[in-house]
From TrEMBL:
<keyword id="KW-1133">Transmembrane helix</keyword>
<keyword id="KW-0697">Rotamase</keyword>
<dbReference type="GO" id="GO:0003755">
    <property type="term" value="F:peptidyl-prolyl cis-trans isomerase activity"/>
</dbReference>
<dbReference type="InterPro" id="IPR023058">
    <property type="entry name" value="PPIase_PpiC_CS"/>
</dbReference>
<dbReference type="Pfam" id="PF00639">
    <property type="entry name" value="Rotamase"/>
</dbReference>
<dbReference type="InterPro" id="IPR046357">
    <property type="entry name" value="PPIase_dom_sf"/>
</dbReference>
<feature type="transmembrane region" description="Helical">
    <location>
        <begin position="74"/>
        <end position="91"/>
    </location>
</feature>
<keyword id="KW-0812">Transmembrane</keyword>
<dbReference type="InterPro" id="IPR000297">
    <property type="entry name" value="PPIase_PpiC"/>
</dbReference>
<feature type="domain" description="PpiC">
    <location>
        <begin position="3"/>
        <end position="92"/>
    </location>
</feature>
<protein>
    <recommendedName>
        <fullName>Peptidyl-prolyl cis-trans isomerase</fullName>
        <ecNumber>5.2.1.8</ecNumber>
    </recommendedName>
</protein>
<dbReference type="InterPro" id="IPR051370">
    <property type="entry name" value="PPIase_Pin1"/>
</dbReference>
<keyword id="KW-0472">Membrane</keyword>
<keyword id="KW-0413">Isomerase</keyword>
Length: 92
């Protein structure tokens, strides 16, 4: 990895307000349509606590719970140019 690159990973929990109400683990969107935003946030907070306290590994949690197709890679989104990330966050 070059010094101007960062590796990003995430866990996505979809909910009723998600634009696309289907995922690799819920192709018909049955669970997603019933999941409130508050419920998704609560689940993410609980998963975060398990990761921070060492009860679970990030990659394992992402593989099991994330609605993103990156779940098959433990939530790994790959490498990004550091400047690209700053541009997305700060919009210049």
């Amino acid at each position: 990895m070059a010094s101007n690159q960062v590796r990003a990973s995430h866990i996505l929990i979809k909910h009723q307000g998600s634009r696309r109400k289907a995922s690799w683990k819920d192709p018909e969107g049955d669970v997603i349509r019933k999941t409130t935003r508050d419920s998704a946030v609560s689940q993410l907070k609980s998963l975060r606590e398990d990761i921070i306290t060492g009860k679970a590994k990030f990659e394992d949690v992402a593989s099991r719970y994330s609605d993103c197709s990156s779940a098959k890679r433990g939530g790994d989104l790959g490498l990004f140019l550091f400047l690209f990330i700053l541009t997305l966050i700060f919009g210049s």
